[in-house]
Specification:
single chain; alpha/beta; Rossmann fold; twelve-stranded mixed β-sheet; 11 helices
C-alpha cells in the first residue's frame, strides 16, 4: 500500500521514479480504508532531503499512510523556499486540535546550544506535551531524541571529544521488541553528531529500555516500555550519499573533519560507498508502522482512554 502525499511535493516525483508506491489525495478518496495519520516535524534545514528520506521509509510497507509535514512557526527557515513551506507544511498551531497515529520529530543542527537557547524550544516543548495525549506513538531522531529525553525525563546531552561520524555496528539488546523484530544480533546504522546521552542516565529511568547500542555510539534505540515514545540517536533513514555530501561540504568549508568511519570502502573516498544499513533501516520503520497500525485505536478519539491508563 502507498503513502499519501501531495502530488506537487518534490519527493513525489523522486520516489515515483524509484518505483516507491506513493499516492496523491484524489486517488486515495476512492479507497475504503482509514490510512495511518503520520506527522513529521521537520527541524532539518534541508527539508526536502529529509522529507524524501523519511517518506521513502514510510512508503515501504503494505500500510497506507496519510502524511502531514510540520514546521516551526517560531523559526525562520533560511534553507527552504518559503513557497515550499507554504504549499506543503503546516504549523503546530494549525493541527494542535487534531490527533495522529504516529509522529516523527527529526534532528536539528543545534547540538551545541543548551536546549532552552534554541529559538523554537518553547514551541517544541508544546509539541512534546501534545504528543502525550494526541499521538499514539512518537519517533524522535538524533537531536530530536536528545531533546525529548531531556524534556520528558530530565536526561541531559553531553558534548563528545570528537564528532561521531560514520557507519557503526550495533548489538541488539531486546530480541522480542516489536520495534526490532527480525533484526540480526549485530547490525549497522549511520551516525552524525557531536553530542550523546549516557547509558547510565537511561538506566536510571525504569520506564526506558535500551533496545540497541554499541560501545562507539552508546544507546542507539531507546523506547518507553509501552513504545509510545521512541528515541533513536542514529540515522537509519539516511540515503546512500548523505554522509558523503556532509563530508564534502565540510571539507569545502575548510573544517577539520575525519573521513566517515566504515562508510567508504577501506575508508577511502575514492573507492566508493558501501551501504550496509538500509535493510535494517527499512525494517525498523516498517516495524514501527506495523506496531502503530496494530495498537492504535481505529477511532483516534479513544486515545484519551489510553492516556488515562
Amino acid at each position: 500500500m502507498p503513502i499519501l502525499i501531495p502530488k506537487g511535493l518534490p519527493a513525489y516525483k523522486t520516489l515515483k521514479e524509484e518505483n516507491v508506491f506513493v499516492m496523491h489525495e484524489q486517488r486515495a478518496l476512492n479507497q475504503d480504508i482509514r490510512p495511518l495519520r503520520i506527522a513529521i516535524v521537520n527541524l532539518m534545514p534541508t527539508k526536502e532531503v529529509t522529507e524524501t528520506q523519511l517518506i521513502r521509509m514510510l512508503a515501504n510497507t503494505p500500510l497506507q499512510v496519510d502524511l502531514q509535514l510540520l514546521t516551526m512557526d517560531t523559526h525562520e527557515s533560511k534553507n527552504t523556499d518559503k513557497l515550499h513551506l507554504d504549499n506543503f507544511y503546516k504549523t503546530f498551531e494549525e493541527i494542535k486540535n487534531q490527533r495522529f497515529d504516529g509522529m516523527i520529530i527529526t534532528g536539528a543542527p543545534v547540538e551545541f546550544l543548551p536546549f532552552a537557547e534554541v529559538d523554537y524550544w518553547k514551541e517544541l516543548t508544546e509539541i512534546f506535551e501534545y504528543t502525550k495525549t494526541s499521538v499514539f506513538s512518537t519517533l524522535h531522531i538524533c537531536w530530536g531524541a536528545q531533546a525529548a529525553l531531556y524534556y520528558h525525563y530530565g536526561i541531559d546531552k553531553y558534548v563528545m571529544p570528537e564528532k561521531l561520524f560514520g557507519v557503526f555496528k550495533h548489538k541488539l539488546k531486546d530480541k522480542k521488541s516489536e520495534l526490532t523484530r527480525g533484526f540480526d544480533e549485530e547490525f549497522y546504522a549511520p551516525h552524525s553528531r557531536h553530542t550523546q546521552v549516557r547509558k547510565e542516565d537511561i538506566q536510571k529511568i525504569h520506564d526506558l529500555k535500551i533496545l540497541a547500542e554499541s560501545e562507539a555510539t552508546g544507546p542507539h534505540i531507546i523506547a518507553t516500555r509501552d513504545k509510545r515514545m521512541i528515541f533513536v540517536q542514529g540515522h537509519m533513514e539516511y540515503d546512500r550519499e548523505t554522509l558523503k555530501l556532509e563530508y564534502e561540504r565540510d571539507v569545502k568549508k575548510g573544517l577539520e573533519i575525519d573521513v566517515p568511519r566504515d562508510y567508504f570502502r577501506d575508508d577511502n573516498p575514492s573507492k566508493g560507498i558501501v551501504v550496509k544499513w538500509s535493510g535494517h533501516g527499512n525494517l525498523f520503520f516498517a516495524n514501527w508502522l506495523n506496531y502503530v497500525y496494530q495498537e492504535t485505536p481505529y477511532d483516534l478519539a479513544k486515545l484519551d482512554e489510553l492516556v488515562k491508563k
